[in-house]
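Note to self: the last two entries modelled the partners one at a time, which told us nothing about the interface. This time every component goes in together.
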Amino acid sequence: MAGEDGKDKVAPRTTEGQRKLDRRDVLMGLSTVPALGLFGYAWRKQNQVKQAAARAAVAPREAAAAGDVREVNVALLGAGAQGQVLTEAMQRIPGLRFRAVCDIWTEYNQRRVVNTLKRYGHEVNGYVDYREMLDKEPAIEAVVIATPDFWHAEHAIACMKAGKHVYCEKEMSNTLEGARNMVLAARETGKLLQIGHQRRSNPRYIHCHDKLLKEANLLGRIVTVNGQWNRAVAADLGAPDRYAIPQATLTQFGFKDMHQFRNWRWYKGLGGGPIVDLGSHQIDIYSWFLGSNPTHVTASGGLLYHDPKTHEWYDTVMVIYDYMTPAGPAKAYYQTQTTNGSQGYFETFMGDQGTLLISESELNNPGSIYRDPNAPAWDAWIQKGYIGAPVIPEAKDEEEGASGAIADVRESAAPDRHKVPVALTDPYHQPHLQNFFDAVRGKARLNCPAEVGYESAVAVLKVNEAIESNTRLAFRPEDFKVGGEA
Amino acid sequence: MSQPDEESGLRIEGRRARDARRHSHEAMHTVFEVYALHPDARYAAQAAEAALALTQRLERDLSRFIANSDISRINRLEAGEATRVSLETLECLVIARHMFEVTDGAFDISIGTGLSSIELDEDALVVRATQPGVRLDLGGIGKGYAVDLMADVLEEWGLRVALVHGGFSSVLALDGPVDGEGWPLTLSDPAAPARVLARLSACQTSIGASGLVKGDHIVDPRTGEPVRGRRAAWVAAPRPATRGQAAADGAPRLAVTAVTDALTTACMVMSVDEITALCARSPGLEAWVLEDHGQDGAGEAGLRHFGGMHSDGPVALQTGDA
Amino acid sequence: MMAETRASHWAMVGITVMRVLVGWHFLYEGLAKLTADSWSAAGFMKQSRGPFAGFFRWLASDPTMLAYSDTITMWGLSIVGACLILGLFTRLASLGGIGFLMLFYLCNPPFIGYFYTIPSEGSYLIVNKNLVELAALVVIFATGSGTFAGIDRIVHGLWVRKPRLARA
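The predicted structure of the combined assembly is written out below.
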């Protein structure tokens, strides 16, 4: 080429105004076209990697073939707020036939749920006494229990003894004795008993546990855990005057008055206070993700704000658990308070290679994982779709890519945040209920069987004990076992 | 849920309402409030709390920003797929579809992505998509619907003297704080809130408001073009004595604030003739539109008034063809 | 006509490589915006500072103008990029690219005393990479690099009657 420099500029002209296009002109003219081809190749490759990551991120949904599911006859025992949430979620599960609803508040909750179910095309009967329901509705195969905690043991055991499978809301029971009897009843009757720690069936939690922690070990060694559920002050629950339950009925079912019936969670002997109502869900996750039960618990709490006349349990609780995980010791903090809703609820797992921030909410903190700057690169896990590409920090989101020459944020010094690319697309509680009914049909194993629920109850109920005694309490490994296990 | 920086220009005048206890709660990107007068303040607070708790439950079903809401699941449907929804979601969709017909497409929860590609099975509570790609946004109706349900709860609790609103863009006044008088409300220019354009006394009345602060815009779903020259719209309608009874002609059950909420959005984009016609065939419906200065026939204040021959019965909304 | 020196030949090769690289960058910026779920220049323009901030903010606030700006940016960057790579209408494409970069530069100029939140891998005082890339396009424009190695050479050979020399 160098020898032909003179030809580079202009082809020789034959006559004035007429140029001849020679081979060299064509070659030089097309010489940069391959660069466009190369661009196209790179573009395609880039998109393929992105699409593969996106595809991998979409968890394969178990397509429940609507046609061939066996119909299951269901009853709802406890039609309060939680019972209504579960009823709504169950409307989306194919193959369920509601037969009965049992609740002592006939004029309000029972009537409401019965009417809703009728609107959905279920022929249901309402009952006040669960024993009458069990007697008169032999077709029932499964009972979903959402009564106050102090009723769980009696209700669940009676249902299993009557030959029903049981989905029981957490807390399994307000006493360890009740919880233990539930485990024993499940073993004795051979019936299924699923406890309502619904995060155990949440696809995001399963993804984090199975893929991010166990398979990819993205956090490295988890040494500390932090979590909370904070709620703003809320008025006590009340009831419309005209729908008050007769005092005789209230007394029969263990409630002092209408106020206690509506606010049973605050009363000793009925519920367990916020640490049990809220903390139980998340402390269950601590043990699940850490792969072990705690060895010690230290806790402080008190009734700092609410009226002691109507509140018996602690409205503020702070807990530290000690764990001896398979990888080594760890400590986990948890707080719940009911005077300020700041930051809501979440769990944070901190390892030497990264941090996982997760919550059940699809709106706030649904799932982020942060890479420690010293950890190995995570590109391979992004390509596999386990985690999202690094997220540009929130405040800067809108400027991203707006200019022709804006820098790549991955080179910035801030720690990378990656989204956990798995969302719950069904209503809350639905996957856990689905898991239960799949198990009833013999197509799945329970995600939170009685034994797992029991372990969680042991860890959580001990907190109130630790606050009361104001000492650090130890767990023995056998505390988490119900005797006589196989 | 979607309107940015909405400024409704609707306010309660403080003097007489100040005795009413106020309870508020944030949901659907706005603040819901209950004003209630009851001899037992604690009872009223509990009733308000029960009503406000509803907004959170509805948001879980109706918000397009929550991945597992009914609306998000509908928005993800491929052609031929279906999903079961809550009673409330379905009712809201039925009303929204009726409003689409009544306003000749000026109110469109699909924002032009094709409301017709969504089939509602009212018996099975199932929503089916015939085409992929529909994107529903109940921002123009969800707040009003929530306000209707909240008022039902208050009545169930026996609270008659109350006013419920969501961000003052959806207001439902029950009985007024003083015997025989309604809740004193003002309509004012959203750009200059001190400039009161009209005063209303609202009793068993629903009022929807839609307004823009400078720099925002609202898009006509029929053309995809932003609307110019209009700053605010208000629509009022009497609350039917009993909700839940089917209106004539197969029209959906009348959740009146869902209706006024939807109609204000429509009135921001409908022509003067269209609004006149709508009010003419819907006795009881009353509307105000605030035009930018210089619009023909809008008067110096820029406020146009439509309808307003009060009837005691519920608003009967007919489509243009009817 | 002056016989070219060895140095100027290699200079032309270098400029051509530079042209392809700048074109590549433009094309990817354009296509990435076109294929993004919902890209808009609104955020970039809303945080505009400097003497033209008022203009850019007005562009961002008016929905019609914003829609035009977005479309022109997305397609403009892509077309300019493809033309630069191919050496097709090189001068026109260079001018277009200069225009875009000038706008980007003026929208958020790294002047003394301005603090930006744009994620940034470097530090800039008055001169930023937009300005450097703009200067590169000025060189490409001045040399008409497409008639050296690019489709422009064929176009000129076929249609341009008047002899034409690049004054490098």
